[in-house]
């Protein structure tokens, strides 16, 4: 081996920050395939989804957390417990703030919590620089430097991909020297079913976001392979999934007039699932009521939280 070659590094990073600062979009941009749910509504990321960014010099394993916030429901408490467990275990925490928004109490609350995870290196990431002026970026850099001694500070845009390479280099530099932890082909270690359920929830959120921002959950219940029509071809894959709401009154909202909304959700989700799996899919989507699922331990368990 060449003595001067940079050593391969691999490790875990988690992006934290207020809702809507761009954590999921950044994960997707670094990994290069759509894996984490993104939406303009705050607090829509609920699962710790891992994406893996493979680079010639190393592997960044990205643990996408739901964000640190003050718990109000049982779901909120579970999410915080999940965040604690996740952050206690990562090599680097990336603290995300939009470059063009003043640091507020929410940012300070999260920044203070980072002291609880002394093992992790801390990197400040200024997101959405494409929407920010030079002076806004500069001022944000100055404000961030008053919070703590960061191991690195990087402004990026997930939309224009500006500085993404710099960010992945900086993150990799902070990772331990290690052989690859995952096979190069692995983009996420989440099962297909979970990714499919997320796509369904995302499609439903796009349609019914105003009315039901936080009351939707989805599960994949069953899959069946249909006989292929020609030799060497894949048959149609039948996927049976459920979309959960919390109250009877919400069912109608998701179904829409004459079932129009549910059809649209199903069609949008099916297209994305087909793109994900690279094959034709038949999607059967049923809307079910799981009363107050966000507050009920049994229901949360059923939905995988
Ligand atoms: N212009 C611009 N918009 C961005 C960028 N990154 C994210 N966004 C937008 O910001 C919004 C929030 O992005 P998300 O990635 O869902 O934010 P998040 O921090 O994961 O949000 P939660 O899941 O609620 O915690 C979306 O509308 C994104 O399209 C960026 O680099 N530039």
From TrEMBL:
GO terms of molecular function: GTP binding; GTPase activity; ribosomal small subunit binding; small ribosomal subunit rRNA binding
Annotated segments matching region G5: 156-158
Region ranges (G3): 64-67
UniProt-annotated stretches for the region G2: 43-47
A single BP term in Gene Ontology: ribosomal small subunit assembly
Alphabetic keyword roster: Cell membrane, Cytoplasm, GTP-binding, Membrane, Nucleotide-binding, Ribosome biogenesis, RNA-binding, rRNA-binding
Subcellular location: Cytoplasm; Cell membrane
Domain of life, source organism: Bacteria
Major localisation: cytoplasm
Pfam family, any one: KH_2
GO CC annotations on file: cytosol; plasma membrane
Start and end residues of each KH type-2 domain: 208-291
G1: annotated span: 17-24
Region (G4): 127-130
Membrane topology note: Peripheral membrane protein
InterPro entries: G_ERA_dom, GTP-bd, GTPase_Era-like, KH_dom-like_a/b, KH_dom_type_2, KH_sf_prok-type, P-loop_NTPase, Small_GTP-bd
Gene3D superfamilies xrefs: 3.30.300.20, P-loop containing nucleotide triphosphate hydrolases
Limits of the Era-type G domain: 9-177
Positions with a binding annotation for GTP: 17-24, 64-68, 127-130
Functional description taken from the UniProt entry: An essential GTPase that binds both GDP and GTP, with rapid nucleotide exchange. Plays a role in 16S rRNA processing and 30S ribosomal subunit biogenesis and possibly also in cell cycle regulation and energy metabolism.
Protein family (similarity comment): Belongs to the TRAFAC class TrmE-Era-EngA-EngB-Septin-like GTPase superfamily. Era GTPase family.
The protein's assembly and partners: Monomer.
Name used for this protein in its record: GTPase Era
Protein's organism: Leucobacter denitrificans
Gene name linked to the record: era
